């Protein structure tokens, strides 16, 4: 890490500390925003859970708290001071930035064993990528509002950083932890396997089948340890239904930036089970296709899956989009191949401003209704989906041009 | 790869550029024209009562006869207290309410804004509904002094008389609160804040409360002379929010059809229901909405999602007296009493152009949106424009170097021409937007006395600042990056402005429309180092449409001094939570500064001989 990286991290930490101290009411205001805090990550609900837990009541009774038991024990061990909690969240973001710097420095975004980007000279230096993460307004807002998604993001980034360096153990212990915390990171397992396998330093390399089998066994053991620990902490298996069950079955229909809540409010009960399966399977079908098509760039496949799950998962928040956009910065070198950057950036900006305005009209002013906010979440999701699609186009084009250099700069036309 | 790129458009950029230019001009023209079409019969609609439960004017109003004598007695009482301090007034009013058998509460408040202190004491009484469970309430309010600081003799007397009169009826299903606020601007705000436990520290909490407030009617009936000509219905709320149209329709229908009372809107006393008068009513409504200030005691209730109107008497030559006004209020209250749920059926977004003529949001929103779209289209055009790219020479060299330096057998691609340098323009735009906090904070913290000197200093600063910024940038940045930097900073600034305005249009249509109108020169005021005269014209045009020029225009419209407007804005921010100053200083002013920077840079570049091709 050079001086610029340290400077970026220092400035990123500083801006968060200044926001925490100069505007003491800001964390509470932001924590109540549905765009930032979801039922499965909200800091307010976490506090409620910790309170119940420390007073000897099962936090999972009552249907308010839907977060993993290890978070409970972490926050009940912490001294009950806001400064320390705030510092913990700032630290988490700093660790995320460090992981991003490690990923960028490894060169994996531009050079993999199967693919060397013809544009690798254009990629951003690591400090710029860390800065893009630390100064992303979505990341900052998420850090200030203190939802537990911050920890999931940090752990995912740490896992990727370990994977690009070929360190299988830390990579899969971390991804197991991310899965344990918020379930959907399980989708990232296959690309992470490819990524780790590609970056393995050992010679001769084991076969991919053997590698995967051993890794999966290891992963299951780690997950079982987490579950057993949770069982010891809470004294029952209640937490499974009330954390993963909530992710899967969507009992809490609080609005968020995703596509599920409105759909399932409108849904007749008899169709609910069918569409729940459909929506969850829909997320699953991207995994094999993305992994196979982008086999040459497993890191990009992984980032794409993060982007897809940030749109289609049951309780998304802007923190997920913040993670995806920050990771996408690793592929800055091929942005020149993307076709709609300005339009999509403008659409995201529009949605960012119109969303809170419409939510205000609906909930506070009473002059709008739920359709207002839902319309904006649609715009938000469509622009995010288009960013994912456009980035995939750029990545495929980049691969294509390595195979056929004579096509560089030529236009592609549908026949 | 079967993916499609619009090949022709990417090759022939000039087509795109012309198309966008044409489209943005078209959007602006259509936006303006469609606003002027609204008063026509084809575009506006007759008002109608949407909530059937209201049944306006279906009951007989009994207020009159001997009640009139009671009003006149109370009028005498109010007259005697005319110049007393607010605590004497409050004590006497409380006594009267108590003698009528009502629960009484008093509330002192004190606000500080623009170096002045605004104190007073509200007094109110709660009539518990004989047929209700105290979960809902309606409010009858009379300010002791109305918005023009006149003693509201008739209004207060009528409220006192109605409190005794309503007490005798057994049909109320909602509690009725009689509120005598100490003034028309700060008092109601203090009361409604405290009613919802959201009051500041210098405001007392309320000792007696009732249920959720469903509607508010304010009576403004000043002067010793008790005859009046017509009823002026005032409905604009803080930040341009409006009460539900059903409430206005109820009041209009009752006073016109049941009582035979003429109703006026927006101080249009001789409305002939022709195009011109409709347009003027609508425009006056838009100005009030855009300023977002309080137009009467009812305004403070509206942000709490409480529908409220003021009924003000107008003229003193008519044949109506307190009896007609009392019956009107009685009948409106009977209608409000009928409400089954909160007002929700009718429109919350509308423009009224005659007492019985309106346009709804679906018809008028496109005009403000089109102005914002015009700005956004211009931003897109500026982005697509090849002049936004810089560093052609540098990149060519780099490309050569990369070709040579690349390893053997490795493919190196450099994509389509020069890149856009985003850092400098982005930091100009974001920096200027953050600077907007400075005038906002300064104007909200200075004293009333020093307001005008601060105002002229800030005009001077605001005139010089853009020139300074452009000189600074011209001196520091390398010449071939200058024009693209100014070009892109305009692009981002217009993008932000378009985005803010379209968001604002959903919250406060009129403010968004007026700012959009004033910002039109920003779409064509560009950097022209080769042509100083056109830059001069642009500069003058921008100066004439600056936020300061708009302030002068508003001051001229109301016939007040600029410092009075600024004092009002500061008062609005501290007391009412009025957001107009935030929008002006943090959205509009930065966009204007960036526009001036790119125009002024033409002079600076011409003077320094750094002008490129444009």
UniProtKB/TrEMBL annotation, chain A:
Main localization, broad class: endoplasmic reticulum
Biological or metabolic pathway of the protein: Glycolipid biosynthesis; glycosylphosphatidylinositol-anchor biosynthesis
InterPro entries in the record: PIG-U
Parts of the chain that traverse the membrane: 70-92, 127-151, 171-195, 207-227, 259-287, 299-318, 338-360, 372-396
Biological process terms in GO annotation: attachment of GPI anchor to protein; GPI anchor biosynthetic process
Cellular localization per UniProt: Endoplasmic reticulum membrane
Topology relative to the membrane: Multi-pass membrane protein
Keyword Transmembrane helix in annotation: yes
UniProt KW Transmembrane helix keyword: yes
Gene Ontology CC annotation, any one: GPI-anchor transamidase complex
Keyword field: Endoplasmic reticulum, GPI-anchor biosynthesis, Membrane, Transmembrane, Transmembrane helix
Family listed: Belongs to the PIGU family.
Protein name, as recorded: GPI transamidase subunit PIG-U
Species, as recorded: Arthrobotrys flagrans
Taxon lineage: Eukaryota, Fungi, Dikarya, Ascomycota, Pezizomycotina
TrEMBL record, chain B:
A GO-annotated cellular component: GPI-anchor transamidase complex
Residue ranges crossing the lipid bilayer per the database entry: 15-38, 361-384, 422-442, 454-475, 495-524, 536-559, 571-595
InterPro entries to which the protein is assigned, alphabetical: Gaa1
Keywords: Membrane, Transmembrane, Transmembrane helix
Biased composition (Basic and acidic residues): 391-405
GO biological process: attachment of GPI anchor to protein
Short name of one Pfam family: Gaa1
Region annotation Disordered: where it falls in the sequence: 391-411
Coiled-coil boundaries: none
Record-given protein name: Uncharacterized protein
